[in-house]
């Protein structure tokens, strides 16, 4: 893993427990989150998962699971999210302040039996962040640690 990667996918959740809509681009709003996403404000404005960590969970399960089952907003690759609390991640022109580890919940087992346990170690379920800048982001944007 390096300190640079890319944004592989963007998902927006229209309503609490609602479907995850994949988008080629989206707008991040400072202090709020993704425009149109049901979760706004607080410390958990955007959730992120790493493609590599997701693959480790799939290997443990012995099956492929669509990353939308995690219900995160951003899928990144080439960059490690584990143990990054307090760091600043740049996604395109936006800065995200990583506030902590996203813990897997029982919804994960609703999507795939055993997924919650497979996401438990090593921050595999990802991280949550506060948005520091208004910015448009798009799939393929560079992702790097500041």
Write the layout of secondary structure elements.
Blueprint: E1 4-13, E2 20-23, E3 25-29, E4 33-34, E5 46-50, H1 51-61, E6 74-77, E7 88-91, E8 94-101, H2 107-111, H3 115-119, E9 127-131, E10 135-138, E11 142-145
Parallel strand pairs: 5-6
Antiparallel strand pairs: 1-2, 1-6, 1-11, 3-4, 3-10, 5-9, 7-8, 7-11, 8-9
Structure in words:
The chain is mainly beta. It has one domain (4-145): M1 Pyruvate Kinase, Domain 3, CATH 2.40.33. 14% of the residues lie in helices and 38% in strands. It has a seven-stranded mixed beta barrel with strand order 1-6-5-9-8-7-11. A three-stranded antiparallel sheet has the order 4-3-10, with no helix packed on it. The longest helix is centred in the middle third of the chain and has 11 residues, at 51-61. The radius of gyration is 14 Å and the shape is globular.
> Quick check: average pLDDT?
94
Q: How many structural units, i.e. domains?
A: 1
CATH class: Mainly Beta
Based on the coordinates given, report the CATH architecture: Beta Barrel
Describe the sheet with the most strands: 7 strands, mixed, barrel
Order of H and E elements:
EEEEEHEEEHHEEE
CA-atom Rg in angstroms: 14 Å
Count of alpha/pi helices: 3
Return the CATH topology.
M1 Pyruvate Kinase, Domain 3
Q: Shape, please?
A: globular
Give the uncertain stretches in residue-range form.
none
Major β-sheet strand ordering = 1-6-5-9-8-7-11
Distance between the termini: 15 Å
How helix-rich are the residues, as a percent range?
Answer: 10-25%
CATH superfamily: PK beta-barrel domain-like
In total, how many beta strands?
11
Q: State the oligomer.
A: single chain
Helix-strand category: mainly beta
Sheet-strand content, in percent, reads 35-45%
């Amino acid at each position: 893993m390096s300190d640079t990667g890319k944004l592989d996918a963007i998902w927006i959740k229209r309503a609490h427990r609602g479907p995850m809509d994949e988008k080629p681009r989206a707008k991040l709003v400072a202090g709020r989150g993704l425009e149109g996403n049901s979760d706004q404000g607080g410390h958990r404005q955007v959730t992120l998962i790493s493609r590599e960590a997701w693959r480790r969970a799939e290997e443990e399960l012995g099956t492929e699971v669509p990353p939308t089952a995690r219900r995160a907003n951003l899928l990144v690759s080439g960059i490690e999210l584990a143990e990054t609390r307090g760091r600043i991640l740049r996604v395109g022109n936006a800065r995200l302040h990583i506030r902590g580890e996203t813990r897997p919940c029982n919804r994960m087992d609703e999507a795939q039996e055993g997924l919650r346990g497979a996401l438990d170690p090593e921050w595999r379920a990802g991280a949550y962040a506060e948005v520091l800048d208004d910015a448009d982001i798009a799939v393929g944007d560079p992702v790097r640690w500041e």
